[in-house]
Each structure stands twice: as structure tokens, then as C-alpha cells.
Design a protein that fits this description.
The complex is a heterodimer of chains A (about 250) and B (about 230). Chain A has one domain. By secondary structure, chain A is mainly alpha-helical. The model of chain A has no long low-confidence stretch (mean pLDDT about 95). Chain A has helices at about 1-30, 35-45, 50-75, 85-120, 125-130, 135-175, 180-185, 190-215, 220-254. Chain B has one domain (about 25-50, about 70-230): 3-Layer(aba) Sandwich (Rossmann fold). Classes of the chains: A mainly alpha (about 250), B alpha/beta (about 230). At the A-B interface, α5 of A face α2 and β6 of B. Bound molecules: adenosine-5'-triphosphate (ATP) and magnesium ion. The site of magnesium ion has 4 residues of chain B, from α1.
Chain lengths: ~250, ~230
């Protein structure tokens, strides 16, 4: 009886938790209003624009390393020529969104959780309520939408830079002809490869901002509380991205 | 009228409120005193629904408090000021005003409220991080009174201020309450404040209200004498 009860209780707690997060996300997403567009723009700047350097660098080095790996691996069965196509497909479908998402998780989920958590522990969230303002609509809505809208753009930029990273290595040290490399990168790329990556980006954006907001809002008291919220937000965002990536990949490419 | 019926609140094993009964009439100014950590701030938050009481009820004009309606005419000074970090001083003060008027109209009102708490126009464009503790407190006070609320809570309005400034703030609160007929609950450790702004004083101790009476009769109250020691109710 006891083990069943333990499992049952854990399952109940999990479902209740998922339900609470879903309701929170629904309230956040549903709070979008015309006069909130300014706040949305500010957040897009914070989440999207300021993440460009880190996402770009990540993509550049990943694309370059990928080209080296595929070249040396491909040589084993005389297929070194596939480098441009595989780098492009790998970046666009998988590495661009996943690594971009993870980098944004590190940068953005943490800062959202720290900012909102600090507002929670310094009673700024309570103050919003006493000023007839819904904290979810004021804080969560612009962050969720900004992340959902920014991440696909970041992923697109990362895809291009990643392919360029591969090209730099390919043309620079693997002996590829520069023009052929670029032509072969595009030649085998299909629309759905790119689109699926961008959709993944939007979902990862939601996961990142939602973790930051959720753990920030529930931050417990004191500096330690905010620190814990920040850590939880990054871990949840990263694990969430990897799990969602597996699920979405299964859905898109079965 | 705000009425608290048998409020209970514990945090884990720690009992903070254990059956608080209290009423504040329309236009009345109630001061709540009590030792640090007895739950005065928690009491205010229970009234506002920011902390959910374990048991008991808060009514407003005889009905369970309806938060949206109540907040519409409400102002609160938080103990830690709780200014919004991302907004400048005047934007903090004008937060509520800016929801229904242009910045051009809201800013002069904010400057006027800042002047009432003794802050000049040069502070208006500072960010909260640039303020001293006492300045932040006064900005919080200006924000609380910015939209001429009919119910105001002050959580330790004079803590962290020099004596002259504290006296000025006491006078300001007294004026607001008498001029606008607002209902006020003030939490304080400062007996000068109590004398200056209170009609009634309540002492919170051990989770309940152990004394509740007019400020003019403080000298007669044994519970207050115990609490205040020699500094009593002169
Ligand atoms: N969110 C919370 N979680 C856990 N404990 C809390 C919480 N809020 C308050 N407490 C506890 O409740 C007790 C009362 O806190 P409260 O802030 O109301 O004290 P206070 O009477 O306002 O004191 P002070 O005069 O120092 O401001 C304290 O022991 C505090 O630790
Ligand atoms: Mg307090």
C-alpha cells in the first residue's frame, strides 16, 4: 500500500505542478495588450538583441568544429564532400536551435529569475498589486512574448553564422572551393529543415522565459532565495529545452 | 470600515497571528505598535490578501474584501519602500496616475507630492538605487499618497529619518488624514508618531491585540505601560 501511495502522491504533485505552470503560462501569454508593446520592445532588446553576440559566437565555433568532425569522420568512407550539406542541416535542424536556446537559457532565464526574484523579496511585486496592477501582465507577459519572438530570429542568425563557421574551416583549411562549399550548403537544405528549427526556437524561448518568471515569482526570502531561484530557473530551462527538443524532433521528423 | 475577525497566520511551526480582532472606522487613524517581529507587517498584508490568512476574515464595509475595488482607492507605504528599480523617482510616484493620464499631466502632480515629503525637483529623475534609505522611504510615501487614496496603510513611515524630518512626516500624515478624511492604519515604533497621527492605538503582542484604546488615554493603559517601560505615555 505504502509504495503505491508514495508513487501516487508524487504523480499527483507532478500533475498539480504542471497544471499550475500551464495556468501561469496561459495568464502570461493572454495578458498581451496594445499599450504593453513598449515593454515588449524593451524586453526584445534585452532578450534578443543583447543575446546576439553570445549566440553568434557559439554558432561560429560550433559550425567550425562540426566541419572538422564531419570531414575527418567522412574521410573514413570517402565521403568528405558531404561537409557543407551536413554542417548546414545539422546547424539548422539541431545545433542552432539547441545551442542557441541553451546559451539564452544561461543568459536570460537567470537574469529574469534574478530580476523578478529581487522584486519579489523587496516587495515590489506586492507594491504592484497595491497599485492595481497585475504583476503577471506587467512582468511576465512582455518577457514571454519577447522570448518567443526573439528566439527564432536568434536561431536564424545563429544558423547563418554557424554555416559560415563551417565555410571558414572548409574553405580555409579543408581544401574546399569557396563557391562550391556555399553552393553545396544551400543545395541540400529543405524548407522544413529551416522552419522546424525556427519553431523549436520559439518553443525554447517560451521555456526559457517561463522558467525565469516562474522561479523568480516564487523566490523565497533573502538573497539566498533569489540565488536559488536563479539556479532553478537555469536548470529547468536547460533540461526543458533538451526534453522539448527530443519531443519536437520526434514529432517533426518521424 | 475595515474589520478583522479572528485572523490567524502561521509560517510553518511559527505562529505569528493568533486571533486578531480589530476595526478601523471611516476616517479614523489607527496606530499599531508592537515589538519587532510580532507580525505587524504580516497583519497589513493579511488585510490586503498579499498573505493568505490561515483562518479568519477581513471585511470592508461589512462585506468580504473585494481586492480590485479596495485597491482602486488605496495607498500603501511599504516598510522597505518597495520602489520599482526600473522606474525613476517621479515615475514611481506617478505610477498609478500614468495609468490614466499623460506623462505631461502626471509629472507635475508627482513633483508636488515629492515636495510634500521634502524632496526637491532635483530628485525626480534619479533612479531608486541612487537614493538613501530615508529618501527612498519618503518617495514611497509620496507614491502612497499620489492618487489621494481614501484608505492608506503606512508601515513605519518615520523609521530611518532624522527627528526633524520625522516630525515633518508625522505632520504630513496627520494633515492628509484630517484634510481628505482618509482612513489610515500606521505601524510604528515611534511614540511621537502615535501621538501626532493616531486617534487610536492598538498593541499587538503574542499574536493578539492586547490593548486597543484612544491615544488621549494611553497613560491609563497598564498593557501599554508594560510595553513601553518608563518611556510611557506621558
Ligand atoms: N513570508 C514569510 N515567510 C516566513 N516567515 C515570515 C514571512 N513573513 C513574515 N514572517 C515572519 O513573521 C514574523 C513577523 O514578521 P513581521 O514582518 O510582520 O514583523 P513586524 O512586526 O513587522 O516587525 P518589524 O517591526 O521588525 O517590522 C517574523 O518572525 C517573520 O520572520
Ligand atoms: Mg514590519
Amino acid at each position: 500500500m505504502t509504495p503505491i501511495r508514495t508513487v501516487g502522491r508524487a504523480a499527483l504533485r507532478l500533475t498539480r505542478g504542471i497544471g499550475a505552470v500551464a495556468i501561469f503560462a496561459g495568464r502570461g501569454l493572454g495578458g498581451l495588450r496594445i499599450h504593453g508593446l513598449r515593454a515588449l520592445a524593451v524586453q526584445m532588446l534585452q532578450i534578443g538583441w543583447l543575446s546576439l553576440p553570445v549566440v553568434g559566437l557559439t554558432a561560429l565555433f560550433t559550425g567550425a568544429a562540426l566541419a572538422l568532425q564531419i570531414h575527418s569522420g567522412g574521410e573514413r568512407f570517402q565521403a568528405g564532400d558531404v561537409v557543407p550539406a551536413i554542417v548546414a542541416i545539422g546547424m539548422v535542424r539541431e545545433l542552432g536551435p539547441v545551442l542557441g536556446g541553451l546559451m539564452v537559457a544561461a543568459r536570460v532565464a537567470s537574469s529574469i529569475a534574478a530580476e523578478i526574484g529581487t522584486m519579489r523579496v523587496t516587495e515590489q511585486i506586492d507594491a504592484l498589486v497595491t497599485l492595481s496592477t497585475d504583476p503577471v501582465r506587467w512582468l511576465v507577459t512582455p518577457r514571454l512574448w519577447a522570448a518567443i519572438l526573439s528566439l527564432p530570429v536568434l536561431v536564424a542568425v545563429g544558423d547563418i553564422i554557424g554555416i559560415m563557421g563551417g565555410w571558414l574551416v572548409g574553405a580555409g583549411s579543408l581544401g574546399f572551393n569557396s563557391a562550391t562549399y556555399i553552393a553545396n550548403s544551400w543545395a541540400y537544405l529543405e524548407f522544413w529543415d529551416v522552419a522546424s528549427g525556427l519553431i523549436k526556437g520559439a518553443v525554447f524561448g517560451l521555456i526559457v522565459a517561463l522558467s525565469g518568471c516562474w522561479f523568480g515569482m516564487r523566490s523565497s526570502r533573502g538573497a539566498a532565495g533569489v540565488g536559488r531561484a536563479t539556479t532553478q530557473a537555469v536548470v529547468a530551462a536547460a533540461v526543458g529545452i533538451l526534453a522539448a527538443n527530443f519531443a519536437l524532433t520526434g514529432l517533426f521528423f518521424r | 470600515m475595515i474589520a478583522l475577525h479572528d485572523l490567524h497566520k502561521s509560517f510553518g511551526p511559527k505562529r505569528v497571528l493568533a486571533g486578531v480582532n480589530l476595526q478601523v472606522g471611516q476616517g479614523e487613524s489607527l496606530c499599531v505598535i508592537g515589538q519587532s517581529g510580532t507580525g505587524k507587517s504580516v497583519l497589513l498584508k493579511c488585510i490586503l490578501g498579499l498573505v493568505q490568512p490561515d483562518r479568519g476574515q477581513v471585511t470592508w464595509n461589512g462585506r468580504p474584501i473585494d481586492r480590485a475595488g479596495f485597491m482602486a482607492g488605496f495607498g500603501m507605504l511599504f516598510q522597505g519602500a518597495a520602489l520599482f528599480d526600473s522606474l525613476s523617482v517621479w515615475q514611481n510616484v506617478a505610477f498609478r496616475l500614468r495609468q490614466r493620464m499623460s506623462d505631461a499631466k502626471a509629472r507635475p502632480i508627482a513633483l508636488d507630492k515629492l515636495a510634500r515629503v521634502g524632496l526637491g525637483p532635483e530628485t525626480a529623475d534619479l533612479m531608486p538605487a541612487e537614493l538613501s534609505g530615508g529618501m527612498a522611504k519618503r518617495v514611497g510615501l509620496a507614491r502612497a499618497i499620489a492618487d489621494d487614496p481614501s484608505v492608506i496603510f503606512f508601515d513605519e513611515p518615520t523609521t530611518g529619518l532624522d527627528p526633524i524630518r520625522a516630525r515633518a512626516i508625522n505632520t504630513l500624515i496627520r494633515d492628509i488624514v484630517t484634510q481628505t478624511g482618509a482612513t489610515a492604519i500606521t505601524i510604528t515604533h515611534d511614540m511621537d508618531s502615535v501621538r501626532a497621527i493616531g486617534d487610536r492605538v492598538a498593541l499587538l503582542q503574542g499574536g493578539t491585540i492586547v490593548h486597543d484604546g484612544p491615544v488621549t488615554r494611553m497613560a491609563d493603559a497598564p498593557a501599554l505601560a508594560d510595553f513601553l517601560g518608563d518611556g510611557v505615555a506621558k
